[in-house]
Design goal:
This protein has 335 residues and is of the alpha/beta class. 35% of the residues lie in helices and 18% in strands. The mean pLDDT is 96. Bound molecules: phosphoenolpyruvate (PEP) and manganese (II) ion (MN).
């Protein structure tokens, strides 16, 4: 349920509503907006009688929230969420398409720095690379760990690129929170609720990738977990879901984008690389995503993909990334 306040409602009016919500053992979540201030009522079991609030001064309306996800929903938060970095020099959700690019994994300082310089020159503002890798096989490369995070910190220092990197579990999240500008939650962890809660307590924005088997409702509920812990700087990432196709690693669910836009105020980015699984499909999917209107692209780029320790076949060469960016500019996409 959402209690909508009048424009001229005072701080005291707001506090009175919050006190009444808390007196019932529920949680009050103020949602300031351009047009109105709302106060979400959370953790109630069963319906709430609107009359409970309608008699309070400053209350304009009481509206039921019909969706299972509350804080991610436009019903509670009608305005788009924007997330600023570097004092506003980069904004995710502000109308421009933000480019995040880099290898699947940090392999060495030289590799990371070489790729970072190339993607920066092409127009990327975030460097992506995993220091902790969730691999299907326990025998595959698992990432450089803390050393990888230290390399990422150097990349930021030398190139000015912001860093996005994955937290694979609860303990790793402590380290990643310290080094990253955005904490990435991977597809395999989208329903790791303990990790989502931990990310919700972090002081950094969180990018939640859609589970490869997850419905959009489950995806939005994962974001709800993060926000419910107090961190409302959440970015959604569509990265492809499993279908019966053999012509690609996954199927990029572009239908989800306009649906999510309608349902949620959160920014949404697309990862065409993991959707495709093969280099030749990445640029077309990036262009399609940009055309449908996304807030960013998360793209794997490697200077020597044939030697990459992970996801080489789907990694663009730096000049292909440049070509991708040129194509977006031709489409009049604001970067
Ligand atoms: C990645 O970004 O390299 C990654 C592991 O992504 P996903 O969780 O989508 O598979
Ligand atoms: Mn990868």
């Amino acid at each position: 349920m959402l209690v909508v306040m009048r424009k001229r409602a005072t701080r005291e009016d707001l506090d009175r509503v919050i006190d009444r919500i808390r007196a019932h053992g529920w949680e009050a979540k103020p949602v300031p907006g351009g047009e109105r201030t709302g106060i979400g009522v959370l953790r109630n079991e069963g319906a709430i009688d609107p009359a409970l609030f309608l008699d309070l001064p400053g209350v304009r309306d009481v509206i039921p929230v019909t969706k299972p996800y509350k804080l991610v929903s436009r019903e509670i938060h009608p305005d788009d969420t924007t997330i600023a970095f570097g004092g506003g020099e980069v904004v995710i959700g502000g109308g421009k398409l933000v480019l995040m690019a880099g290898p699947c994994a940090v392999e060495s300082e030289k590799q990371a720095m070489t790729i970072a310089r190339a993607v920066k020159q092409a127009g990327a503002v975030f460097f992506r690379a995993g220091a902790f890798k969730p691999r299907t096989s326990p025998y595959s490369f698992q990432g450089l760990g803390l050393k990888g995070l230290e390399i990422l910190a150097k990349v930021r220092e030398e190139t000015g690129l912001f860093i996005i990197t994955e937290a694979t579990d609860h303990e790793v999240c402590d380290m990643v929170e310290e080094y990253a500008d955005i904490i990435q939650i991977g597809t395999r962890n989208m329903q790791n609720y303990r990790l989502l809660r931990r990310a919700g307590q972090a002081g950094k924005p969180v990018l939640v990738k859609r589970g490869m088997w997850a419905t959009v409702d489950e995806f939005l509920m994962a974001a709800e977990y993060v926000i419910s812990e107090g961190n409302d700087r959440v970015i959604l990432c569509e990265r492809g879901i499993r279908t019966f196709t053999r012509h690609s690693r996954n199927t990029l669910d572009l239908n989800a984008i306009p649906f999510i836009r309608k349902e949620s105020h959160l920014p949404i980015v697309v990862d065409p690389s993991h959707a495709a699984g093969r280099r030749d499909q990445v640029i077309p999917l990036a262009r399609a995503s940009a055309a449908i209107g996304v807030d960013g692209l998360l793209v794997e780029v490697h200077n020597e993909p044939e030697k990459a320790v992970s996801d080489g076949p789907q990694s663009l060469y730096p000049d292909q990334f440049q070509e991708m960016v040129a194509g977006l500019k031709q489409m009049n996409i604001e970067l």
